Amino acid sequence: MIASELINFATVLAVAVGVACAISVLYASGLRLWAAGDVDAQGTPHLLHRVVSVVCFTACVAIVLFALWLMIPMFH
What is the mean pLDDT of residues 21-32? Predict the structure, then answer.
């Protein structure tokens, strides 16, 4: 009984740490790419950096909304 509870605890802990790391990496990557998307000295914009940064931010929002959907029973 205690062994199965420890396994369940370890599973929840691993998933929580993994998701927290994923959100942190996505957000940091989004910030870095947004900063790299400025216009350079020749006047050419780096649109791809901005688009990928928006994708990173969108993924962060999607993960947070999915987690809220899982935690709030009214949505089920």
Answer: 98
